[in-house]
Amino acid sequence: MTTWKPDQLGDDYQQHTIVLGADPDGEGEAEAVLVRRTAPAEPRSVVLYVHGFADYFFQTGLADFFAGRGAAFYALDLRKCGRARRPGQTAHYVSDLAWYDAELDRSVDLVAREHPGVPITVVAHSTGGLIAPLWLDRRRRNGNPAPVAALVLNSPWLDQQGSSTLRGPITWALVPLARVIPLRVLPAPVGGVYGTSLHVSGTGEWDFDTVLKPLVGFPVTVGWLNAVRRGHRKVHKGLEVGVPTLVLHSDRSHFSSSYSDAVDRADAVLDVQQIARWAPHLGDRTTVVVVPGARHDVFLSQVEPRATAYDTVDSWLGSLHRSA
C-alpha cells in the first residue's frame, strides 16, 4: 500500500516518501519524494518529471498541461533535493549520478503499478536531463529496460559550459580532489540573475520556495561536479536510451552578472551550442528542437516561447501515439 499525504502545492497534489536507506555518501538516511497531481479518470499516458540542480518540482503549469491532455502527472524530488533534503545533508550532493537510479527505479515501478499498461514519458530538466538518459542507458545495458516509452529533455546539461580550461585541466583535477575533499565548495561568481528573472520577488511570475530553490542556487562541491563530469564523458562516448527522445533548448545563451531583458529571452545557465552538439549522442531516435527566445527552463519562458515549447511537445508526443 502506497501512502500519500497532502503536498505543499495544494489540494490537487499529494506526496509519497520513498525510503532509500543509508546514504552511500555517508550523510544519514536518504529519501526521495514523489509528488502526484490528481489524475484524469482514465489517463491515456503517464508523465514522470525530474528536476535539475538547485531545483525542485513546483511547475504546476507543466502538470496542468499534461493533465489537460489526459496524462497522469508525477514529479520526483531526488535525494537531498527539495522536499527530500533532510537536516545535515549537503544540498543536491551525490558522488555518483548512478545513486539516483534507486529512486528512479522505485518511481517508475510505482507509477506503472498505479496505471498498468499506460505508456510512461519521462520529462527531465537541466541536470535531470543528464541523470535520466544515463539511467535509461544503464537499464538497457543491464538487460532490464525501464518501462518508459518516451523521453523529453528540457535544456539538458550535456557538457561543462565556459572555457576549455574548465572542460579540460580543471575537470581532470577534480578526479583526485574528489577522493580527499569531496564536499569542498568550488569558487563561483555571485549568481541570482536567472533565479531573479523567474521569481515574483524579482522580475518573474513564479512564487516558488526560495529555501528549496534559492535565487542564487546552492554551492557547487568538488565531488558533485566530478560526478557530473563523469556523466558528461559517458554522454560524449555515446548512449542509447532506447526510446524516442525530444530535446528542447533556446536559440541562444546569455551569461551575465546583472539583469537585463536579454536574460528573459535566452538560456542564462547553459551553452545551447553544447546541447545541440551532444544531444545526438543520446540515442538513434533523438529529435532536437530550438525554441527561439526560451529561458533555460523552456517551460518557464515568457508567454510566446513557452507556448511554442508546449505545442512542440504536444505535436511530438501526438505523432508517437499515432505511429504506435
TrEMBL record:
Record keywords, A-Z: Hydrolase
Residues of the Serine aminopeptidase S33 domain: 42-299
SUPFAM superfamilies, alphabetized: alpha/beta-Hydrolases
Superkingdom to which the source organism belongs: Bacteria
Keyword Transferase: no
GO molecular function per UniProt: hydrolase activity
Alphabetical list of Gene3D superfamilies matching this protein: alpha/beta hydrolase
Protein known as: Alpha/beta hydrolase
Taxonomic lineage of the native organism: Bacteria, Bacillati, Actinomycetota, Actinomycetes, Propionibacteriales
